[in-house]
Design goal:
The complex is a heterodimer of chains A (401) and B (231). Chain A is built from 12 helices and 10 strands. With 401 residues, chain A is an alpha+beta fold. Chain A is elongated, with a radius of gyration of 35 Å. With 231 residues, chain B is of the alpha/beta class. The longest helix of chain B has 18 residues, at 174-191. The chains are: A alpha+beta (401), B alpha/beta (231).
């Protein structure tokens, strides 16, 4: 008498059988499918939406420029020597590290700005021409501070401040005079509206900018540099350079702080990753609920198919055949449900991105996670029904009505 | 070919054990037809289940061609049920979602034969039982007699040596009963398959030359050649 073929050799035949069985039990199969489809769709949609949201907010930050570091005077420990930020210290650092391409010092002080009979308390900032490029400022009228301005009392005014100072019939214009504390300045330029860069301690939109040297004459800051924006060369790694610059100043014993947009973006990326995990977790819960649905449907099916399983065992099916059959049915359901659900999830994410005005990007990982998780869930929740079915005793199963 | 030696079977009922078979010994020879006869609850189905390896005795031994099967693995028993035995049940036990042809081919699934090949092998048997025009019909659309023909074809598909039929005509009318019994006789003549028919009906039992009567836990063998319609 021949022995039966190895289980692996039978797998193809068993898969064919499982699909036939599901085809025969359409209503049951469709019900189980719905659960898995919804579960997989939520995983894929939520991960994709999360990732798209992260990309979107990242894009806003990246527009600030990832190649800019902001160096600021920080707090010094009591009793320690105070080493204020100077252009000389920046130049020394630049020579030592060799990654700085442009530096723009800022000397910020609070001042009262008066135009005709309106006055506003705001910040007056001593700047150099390099700032335009580093802070991505744009001019609406006139020109920015130039290197030829020297100690001249010329001022460039932020759009927001200009709007607050101007009045009906007396707008702030290039050529007009305004008073900063006790000094009269000539307006040489007005900025376009700018979005505030969270790294820079000055809101240029609400400030008045004067040549750095002129601060010695007019401002309480007296030419002391409060922060320096530096642009690092293209090849340098922004985060690595920020750490290097920071270490440099630490060894000099000064409490100088260094921040980069990349650091912020990195923090943001970690936060949004957390957010995506959270969303994926919510998706996974619905997938598990879908899996319980599969188990329910498979168990109901097994009760209904008691006699069938008895017949199969009587005519030669082994426990492992019954186990394989039920597991394959559950897997087929999960794979089909996972595919349909993942597609549905992608469509949902696409529509969501479209309605939110985001750019949609496809995250392969979310698709794979949706598919993989639904297969795992289907297999996991198929184990119990399959085991239960395989434990049937043929004589008893055949007796069932 | 198939030998039962001093087989005992009892069922637990609470703390008591109800004996069903007490020391049954008998032989089924190759190519023979016999009946297992007894009143309802006498243990004839239990005897059939033990002979066909669907159930195991509490005591005693079973041999197939000299090989002892009591105590062997479920895989070996399943393989014998698949390759040596064919089963016909009173309530047909066709799978409701499979067509007549696919039902017939089902035992071959557990020999690792693919669906197309199973259908190819099953078709001549469908013809043999006179249902070649019903190949794609689901069991629900067939009459009782037709269902039992499909079931007999399924029992034959694996070229078995013994067909075990448990009350094969119990759910059929008189005309279908006659047809089915004649079909079993013909198949026995054509293929030399042994046929063991369980019945409570003396009119059916006495068709067969050898009658195993189950009563009070024991069996009596009655040989009655005169009543055999074939002689």
């Amino acid at each position: 008498m021949n022995s039966r073929p190895h289980l692996l050799a039978m797998l193809g035949i068993m898969v064919e059988e499982a699909i036939d069985n599901l085809h025969g039990a359409q209503q049951r199969a469709v019900l189980a499918l719905v659960g898995i489809v919804i579960g997989a769709a939520s995983v894929v949609a939520l991960i994709n939406i999360g990732e798209n949201a992260a990309t979107e907010s990242m894009r806003q930050f990246q527009s600030m420029g990832t190649d800019v570091l902001v160096i600021q005077n920080g707090l010094t420990m009591p009793g320690a020597d105070y080493h204020p930020l100077t252009m000389a210290s920046i130049n020394e650092m630049s020579a030592a590290i060799g990654v700085v391409s442009v530096a723009a010092p800022i000397s910020s002080a609070s001042a009262t700005v008066r135009f005709h009979d309106k006055s506003v308390d705001t910040s007056a900032v001593g700047v150099t021409p390099e700032l335009v490029d580093l802070a991505r400022l744009q001019l609406r009228q006139g020109r920015f501070v130039s290197e030829f301005d020297g100690y001249e009392t010329f001022a460039v005014i932020g759009r927001g401040l200009a709007d607050s100072l101007g009045a009906e019939g007396i707008p702030v214009r290039v050529g007009e005079k305004l008073r900063i504390d006790d000094y009269l300045f000539v307006i040489v330029g007005i900025l376009e509206n700018t979005v505030r860069n969270p790294l820079i301690p000055v809101d240029f939109n609400q400030s008045v900018m004067i040549p750095l040297k002129a601060t010695r004459r007019a401002l309480t800051s007296d030419g002391k540099i409060s922060s320096v924006l530096i642009k690092i060369s293209e090849r340098a790694d922004p985060i690595g350079t920020a750490v290097e610059v920071s270490e440099y100043f630490k060894t000099k014993g000064s409490g100088i702080q260094v921040q980069s947009a990349s650091q912020l973006i990195e923090t943001l990326r970690k936060q949004s990753q957390l957010f995506t995990f959270l969303l994926a977790g919510i998706g996974a819960i619905s997938l598990i609920v879908g899996g319980i649905g599969v188990m329910n449907v498979m168990l109901a099916g097994i009760a209904e198919r008691r006699r069938e399983i008895g017949v199969r065992m009587a005519i030669g099916a082994l426990q492992q055949d019954v186990l394989t059959m039920i597991m394959l049915e559950a897997s087929a359901l999960s794979i089909i449900g996972g595919c349909l659900g993942s597609l549905l999830g992608l469509m949902t994410a696409y529509l969501f991105a479209n309605f939110s005005g985001w750019e949609f990007s496809f995250f392969l990982l979310s698709f794979l996670a949706g598919l993989g998780m639904s297969l795992l869930v289907g297999l996991f929740f198929g184990i119990y029904p399959a085991f239960k079915a395989s434990q049937m005793v043929p004589v008893e199963a055949l007796r069932a009505d | 070919m198939l030998t039962l030696d001093n087989v005992c079977k009892s069922y637990a009922l609470g703390s008591r054990r109800i004996p069903v078979l007490t020391g049954v010994s008998l032989k089924i020879e190759a190519g023979e037809m016999c009946s297992i006869m007894g009143s309802s609850g006498s243990g004839k189905t239990t005897l059939l289940n033990i002979m066909s390896l669907l159930d195991m005795p509490n005591e005693g031994r079973i041999f197939y061609q000299g090989q002892e099967l009591t105590g062997t693995s479920e895989a070996i028993k399943a393989n014998i049920r698949n390759r040596v035995f064919g089963f016909v049940f009173q309530s047909f036990n066709l799978l409701p979602r499979l067509s007549a042809l696919d039902n017939i081919g089902l035992p071959l699934l557990y020999r690792g034969i693919g669906k197309a090949e199973r259908r190819r092998i099953a078709y001549p048997l469908l013809e043999r039982v006179g249902l070649s025009d019903r190949a794609e019909h689901l069991p629900d659309t067939l009459s009782g007699g037709q269902k039992q023909r499909v079931a007999i074809a399924r029992a034959l598909v694996g070229k078995p040596e013994v067909i075990f039929a448990d009350e094969p005509t119990g759910s059929l009318d008189a005309a279908s009963t006659k047809n089915i019994l004649n079909l079993l006789d013909e198949l026995n003549r054509e293929t030399s398959v042994s046929v063991v028919v369980v019945t409570h009906d003396p009119n059916i039992s006495t068709r067969y030359a050898r009658q195993i009567v189950v009563d009070n836990g024991g069996v009596a063998i009655r040989k009655d050649h005169l009543k055999n319609p074939r002689t």
